[in-house]
Amino acid sequence: MGNSIAIDGPAGAGKSTIAKLVAKELGFIYVDTGAMYRAMALYLIRKGIDRNDSAQIEKACEDADISISYEDGKQVVLLFDENVNDYLRTEEVGNMASISSANPKVREKLVALQQKLAAQKDVVMDGRDIGTVVLPDSKFKIYLTASAHVRAKRRYDELVLKGEKADLSKIEADITERDERDMTREHSPLKQAEDAVVIDSSDMSVEEVKDAILAEAEKRL
């Protein structure tokens, strides 16, 4: 049985950034759940499944075997033991992933694969329902959050740094709307696990958040 760290929280809280840093520090595998959905999409494309045929998607996804490992310090997404990293970022795969990921059966299959991965290896996983649905038995759950304004400002700064135009008030309104949508959706809503450690990163640096999680991990894992 592997050790796991489950990180949940709203959009823009820095979950992926923190999860990758913590995983690297501990020698755990960072499970990129989004990449797993893309690998599923690639599998469906290779099977010749019509992205609008829900019944065929549901039937085909049952046979998929997707996992994640590291080779030479680089994350490798495996589809039936084949490294498919080079195929995951195409527009075709992205379009299929966007549609197929909304299928409850696809999600059910990938949650099962993520749970299998966590049972075999030490992992750090982030998302909206990792501690409540995907890894409910994890010994260390974190709910990472920050105020909507702080999260909007972080996104605003990212866009400005790229030379793109950005409207801080609109970004904040969008984040608030997404929070509401994520928390009230029917399937696997964003929810803080009862036994999660809450970390509000509004006034913390990335390093401070990482160090706080590592200190807590020493007590729990």
How would you briefly describe this protein structure?
By secondary structure, this protein is an alpha/beta fold.
Notes on the protein architecture:
The protein has 221 residues and is α/β, with parallel strands linked by helices. It has two domains: 1-28 and 123-221, 3-Layer(aba) Sandwich (Rossmann fold); 33-121, Rossmann fold. Helix content is 51%, strand content 17%. The protein has nine helices and eight strands. It has helices spanning 15-26, 33-46, 54-61, 91-100, 104-120, 130-134, 148-161, 168-184, 206-220; strands at 4-8, 29-31, 66-71, 74-79, 82-83, 123-127, 140-145, 197-200. Strands 2-6-1-7-8 form a five-stranded parallel sheet, sandwiched between helices. A three-stranded antiparallel sheet has the order 3-4-5. Strand 4 and strand 5 form a beta hairpin. Helix 2 (33-46) crosses helix 4, helix 2 (33-46) packs across helix 5 (104-120) and helix 7 (148-161) crosses helix 8. The longest helix is centred in the middle third of the chain and has 17 residues, at 104-120. The model has no long low-confidence stretch (mean pLDDT 93).
